[in-house]
Amino acid sequence: MSDWDPVVKEWLVDTGYCCAGGIANVSAEDGVVFAAAADDDDGWSKLYKDDHEEDTIGEDGNACGKVSINEASTIKAAVDDGSAPNGVWIGGQKYKVVRPEKGFEYNDCTFDITMCARSKGGAHLIKTPNGSIVIALYDEEKEQDKGNSRTSALAFAEYLHQSGY
């Protein structure tokens, strides 16, 4: 458990708008998650899975073969490049990049935001100017939506930025 886990829980999960959340570091750790929390107290399984292989599907819908997935590198690619060719992988679950926004203004801060989606839920990846990445997951089956989860994630990103992270 990280010292940051309770902070993530307070800012993201306890709002009721996010089912899980975490913090990754893009500068020093290349997207590696270092804090995690979830509504079922199993944050690390929701936010992190060791490198694994997954089947890839071609444009024609047929399997193309296996690809090795490093979740940290997919998170980093999504926030840095606004795309992740094999999807963004968080906790063994695949998300599709649907809307990258560079230079998003929120209060007195500027963030790079990547919105990701999957069936009945999604994720917000928010990169602070200091190199932290807020990861906020929402689950529509728990009556959570992308708007409220995004607002919670932005508030947390602002807090991290103002605290030097």
From TrEMBL:
Record-annotated site: Interaction with Pro-rich sequence: F34
Subcellular localization, as worded in the UniProt entry: Cytoplasm, Cytoskeleton
tRNA-binding among keywords: no
GO cellular component: a single term: actin cytoskeleton
InterPro entries found in the cross-reference section: PFN, PFN_euk, PFN_sf, Profilin_apicomplexa
GO biological process, one term: actin cytoskeleton organization
Molecular function as annotated in GO: actin monomer binding; phospholipid binding
Keyword terms, alphabetized: Actin-binding, Cytoplasm, Cytoskeleton, Lipid-binding
Function: Binds to proline rich sequences in various regulatory formin-like proteins and also to membrane phospholipids. Binds to actin and affects the structure of the cytoskeleton.
The family this protein is said to belong to: Belongs to the profilin family.
Quaternary structure (record): Binds actin.
Protein name, as recorded: Profilin
Organism: Toxoplasma gondii (strain ATCC 50861 / VEG)
Lineage: Eukaryota, Sar, Alveolata, Apicomplexa, Conoidasida
